[in-house]
Amino acid sequence: MSVTLFTPHSGERIPGWWLRLRGFRIGIYRFFTRRKVVTALITGSNGKTTTTNMLARILEEAGHFVGKANTEGVYLGGRQVWRGDSSGFKGAGWVMTDTRVTAAALETARGGLLTHGLYLRHVDAAVMTNIGLEHLGDRGIHSQEDMTAHKKRVTDAARKAVVLNADDPHCRRIARDYPLERRILYSCEPDNLFVHNHCSLGGRAVCVDGSGDSERLILREGGQLREILPVAAMPSAMGGLLRFNISNALAAAGLALGMGLSLEAIARGLSRFRLDAVDNPGRFTVLRCRGRSVVVNFASNPISLQTTLPAIAAIAVPGLRLCLVTAPDNRAEDHFALIARELAGQFDRYLVFLVDRYIRVKAPGWAVDEIRHELLRAGVAPELVSTHHSLCDAIQSAFAGCAPGGLIAILGEGLDESVKCLEKAARDENGHEQLLSATNNAIEIGGKLAPFVAPPKSEE
């Protein structure tokens, strides 16, 4: 399927003439070579980046030269060529105008849609992962129904397959807007009635089947069941503990099916996808630093916390458990209260830190003070909550108050910045870094041993 780039609707802040010129040149090239790029868009509130990364790995296993754009940057053929949020028009423009790309996985966020509009007219497949409470009240979107309608513009662009989360009520509500033959559902609930009715009519769904060690991902097509792979074979699921990554894997598998890939390629991709700095940086990345377990998770919204906190709680450590948390200030009024309710009682100490790029609509430090205030309202003792002007300052304080054998959870910041601050805090008196290699260390998670993830080398 050929893909056409077109000009953003408003607020153009990028060299649009450059992208249009490149798009015209590549369009002429593709017309004469009959070159096609299979393309998928990924939207929703949570899980977009991981789903994009999983799909890219599956496409690579199928033999494609993959272009990927997400909140971490732009990747061509597995190599990062641009660092920074690229989940919109700029990232897609970079990917789609590279002549080597044969398949594209493009994260599509709310902000880019509002600023530039939908940047691709038609794609092969698109997924809506879920609809949460983030960003409500911002730029004319006041309810989850409004957000669903806004993000539905992405799934409306899909011509071969629309993939929807049958566990999310807002995704279920729009499912019948698409023909049965183009609709692919996914669910982590083995007895999901909506999926059952869909498949009884001849529809397709990717689901979880079984329980415990026998849990597996399957394809349901009408009355037929076909195994994709066991959950135990997916490193990203950590033996089934990370339920949110099982859901993300189902979304990626649904997209891959809609793009015409085989079950074998899907199984290979998911079995080789890891929670490391290469495949999925900052999405439940586990490190070890100066004898402490460190979990880095970029998302810190209430829905994300509901899924990640049980996994963090399952990490067995003998020492204290500290939480370092932050959030942007342009969130709904109850957002910070919901965060605090999820976090309260889960850790021994809370360190709320400021991130300069999260200062968007309020005064500097407003979000930090708000999170602290809501933690106190949720029942956390005042002496257990501190505020810090940066992540590095918070990590230094965490190391001072948490002896080796403890756990530090960094919520709301990415892996690159976290590793830079960890390396600064880990230098001993001789100036040597003491971040441990992943190769000879293991962590007990949910009663099982899982390898630590090797941290990337930061760039000073």
Short note summarizing the structure:
This protein has helices at residues 16-33, 48-61, 89-96, 110-116, 144-155, 169-175, 193-200, 243-258, 263-272, 302-313, 335-343, 366-377, 391-401, 415-426; strands at residues 38-43, 66-70, 73-76, 79-83, 103-107, 123-128, 158-165, 183-187, 204-209, 216-221, 224-230, 283-289, 292-297, 321-325, 349-353, 385-388, 407-411, 442-445, 448-451. The protein has 460 residues and is an alpha/beta fold.
- What CATH first level of the largest domain would be assigned? Alpha Beta
CATH architectural label of the largest domain: 3-Layer(aba) Sandwich
Distance between the first and last residues' Cα: 43 Å
Number of helical segments?
14
Secondary structure: number of strands: 19
Q: Pick out the low-confidence regions.
A: 1-15, 28-34, 436-460
State the strand order across the main sheet.
4-3-2-5-1-6-7-8-9-10-11
- Look at the helices and sheets and give the structural class: alpha/beta
CATH domain fold name of the largest domain: UDP-N-acetylmuramoyl-L-alanine:D-glutamate ligase
Number of domains: 2
The overall pLDDT average reads: 85
Query: How is the biggest beta sheet arranged?
Result: 11 strands, mixed
Q: What spatial form do the alpha-carbon principal axes imply?
A: globular
Helix content: 25-40%
